[in-house]
User: Fold these one by one.
Assistant:
Number 1:
Amino acid sequence: MPAKIIAVFNQKGGCAKTMTTMQLGGAFGLMGYNTLIVDMDPQGTAAIWSSQAEVDTPFPANVISLAPMRELMIKELKKFVRDYDVILIDCPPAIDSPIPWAALQVADIGIIPVIPVLDNVWASVKAKELAARAQRENTGLQTYFLISQMRRGNIFAACLEQIKNDPDVPLLEAVISLRNAYPESQAFGTTVQGLSKSSEASKEVRKLAKEIIEKLQMQGA
Ligand SMILES: Nc1ncnc2c1ncn2[C@@H]1O[C@H](COP(=O)(O)OP(=O)(O)O)[C@@H](O)[C@H]1O
Ligand SMILES: [Mg+2]
């Protein structure tokens, strides 16, 4: 079976694209899926993150940067689809970048992380438009919103409701909360599960991974 491809995209910077990619990719790796993370952001955050790991406790997925190839990376990806079970593409935030468009041409699933605040909700219109255009070309593509950095408060709950009621893009059930464990895991070149398997952060990441596995009908690792 060729690898399932997941594109994590949103033109909005700071909405947790890299965090989602790394935690989800790491979760697949820990479940036994042979996992490749492709860092398409010229800032190289995903690649630097994984390089923080100690040699004897490597990041649980392979991470490579293909950012200099820009949209040509989809040709390069063809070399990897037979060797991996799942490939995640961490897209850059640039609005006019051709990279998310290219990634969505080859993806099985597109995940749009959104912080439940109004500026993120407003900006998500652009990501929705891109998803709709991509789905006309790549008819098998599924796209979902993912709530990231959820926290307590009326404005966050109200924005979550608004995203949930979006008529075009469904919302994943799993929710990623704002927790210290997420940035802490970067310091050790690991994921939240690498810090503690029983933490609340680990539970929500595993729930997300299981939900994506179901949507993609991935076979057991
Ligand atoms: N669930 C979370 N809890 C706490 N901090 C988070 C969480 N998700 C992301 N962050 C932090 O928010 C910032 C933006 O996240 P990042 O994944 O880099 O966004 P993007 O890739 O979309 O630009 C980073 O500093 C990251 O460590
Ligand atoms: Mg990023």
Number 2:
Amino acid sequence: MNEQFTVVANDSKEKNIDLARIQALFFPLMVLLIGLSNILVLYIGGKQAAEGIIEVGVIPEFLIYVNMLTWPVAVVGWVTNMVQQAAASQKRVNEFLDINPAIQNMVETDTPVTGNITFDHVNFVYEDTNIQALKDVSFTIEAGKTLAILGKTGSGKSTILELIGRLYDVTDGNIIVDDYPIKDLNLDRLRQAIGYVPQDAFLFSDTIGNNIAFGKKDASKDEIIEAAKNAVVHKNIIDFTKDYDTVLGERGITLSGGQKQRVSIARAIIKKPQILLFDDCLSAVDTETEEKILNNLKKVTENTTTIIVSHRVSSAKNADQIIVLDEGRVVENGNHDSLIKNNGYYAELYTNQMMEDDR
Ligand SMILES: Nc1ncnc2c1ncn2[C@@H]1O[C@H](COP(=O)(O)OP(=O)(O)O)[C@@H](O)[C@H]1O
Ligand SMILES: [Mg+2]
């Protein structure tokens, strides 16, 4: 792999040096030839004028016309060069555009989504690394309920969310959404029904308002503000001099990790989806704000199936159902009280985190 890269990089370097050489030679040569031809015209024309064959005025006339022609002709060469470069680039772009997504929509009819989700003995292997991320995972969550998923890094939490959004298809087993296998749902409809907050919030170099409205094409200003209030980021936004018109990213200001996460949450809830997937998106938010957000969510997501991935018990304890993953397996499944009684990973995590909070 490394060697291959070195070979390709060296090849590209050599070619670029060659190109620079030719260009370094070509342009001075062109100017030189133009100069030489001018001198030639002057010399021969001068002689002829001296002999009385032509009038002196013919010489500048000729030079002016020839010079008017020289640059358009030179530019034709330059444009040809650019067209060739563009054609080569277009070929690469086309290669990329022609790739067919592995996940295809098989269903033309419209299939509304209510939000009941069942994992039935799901196994999942990432093809490129051969890592088995999920092993025999089964659980059910009814529409409108809240499920919390806890577990160490690498235990497969994000993978579960990605499978629900059908970014991948399961290797083995079934995912059932509202009585249908997930493959029998219209893919666009499924994804429209999902509000997904990824682990690393991605915001565009655009205004905060537009970043939130990305979740809903025709969102009004009021809807944007309502979503921001529910994500507890409205107060931060109005502190900026241009509030919702503040530009983010390269051309604008940088938000803190917690602010980014909350803008990203606002983007997900503005479209009032049937299914909300939160991938550890409260990690950079303090526990107090976290509680406020979760309380607001409860109000606006009464009929929304909500899955919250977290490594904090505080995000999970009020969920209707909690599952704990370890190395791709469901090791605990219940609610706060039953898992505390169970005295396993969850109970241990709870005790540890409560002690930390007391300190
Ligand atoms: N895109 C991917 N390609 C290959 N392997 C992956 C990919 N994403 C995650 N994995 C692997 O799958 C396992 C589960 O990952 P993940 O679901 O991201 O865990 P978690 O969200 O609990 O930290 C890990 O071993 C990880 O290395
Ligand atoms: Mg993850």
